[in-house]
Amino acid sequence: MSPGHPDPYREIDAQADPLRFIEALEVRGRTPAQRRLRRRFLRFMRVPVGARVLEVGCGTGVIVRDLAGMVGPRGRVVGVDRSRSLIQGARHLCRDHPARSRMMFRVADGARLPFRADRFDVALAVTVLLHVADPMAVVKEMARVVRPGGVVGVQDQDFGTVVCEHPDRALSARILDGVVARIYEEPFSGRRLPGLLHAAGLQHVRLLTDVFQDTALTPYTENFLARRAENAVRFGLVDATEAQRWLEGFRGVLARGAFVLTINYYGAVGVKAA
Prior knowledge:
Elements: H1 18-30, H2 32-45, E1 52-56, H3 62-71, E2 76-81, H4 84-93, E3 103-107, E4 120-126, H5 135-145, E5 146-157, E6 163-164, H6 169-183, H7 189-199, E7 203-214, H8 219-234, H9 240-255, E8 261-271
Parallel strand pairs: 1-2, 1-4, 2-3, 4-5
Antiparallel strand pairs: 5-8, 6-8, 7-8
Helix pairs in contact: 6-8, 8-9
């Protein structure tokens, strides 16, 4: 984990094994329910063919690769991330992509973007603001680099909306609520996005509410729950035996055909004043 902050995604390059995060982001990207979530949001944003698009906090480039197919041969997509490890991974993963010439990656902080004003038609950040120290600074920078009439879009999960079926509800609440309260400064970030865009001066703000749903305990969800259990032990919320019992409880629920985990995702889109 990060030596400076309990959220490791703030300092991936400082982690003992950055490759673990690259693999986790790619697993999430391949998960069918996650693919549906991000593609619905991209359609909601109405990214035009030929657009110049910036993704802030691009990670391994999962969404950049999606966008490269949407903007067509005349479009361009730039992905930025603070992590050198993730940018290196993104460049490696897109090296054989048929739309590789439309994609560019560079190391940059979303709160201090190295681009001139009005350069892009669209800027977006997906599941990023939850992890940053100053979400407003990032949104204002995204608005700065978008042309007048351009679009700014943000999407985040909201950890106040996690629902799961487990035989020990009290233990689930202790782990799920306790961990997010200790890792994230604003674990309910999803529901705050429309207000954030309004406060940044964007107009015609629209909201898309969507739901991640898993009834099969996919590898992405297994990783999600395992990390919650690991952190619950780290923060002293449970001991190792309780954490293992909690994870095994989900296996029992799955065996009965009763496994359910859902999380609300909120996507907000606004327009820069002309």
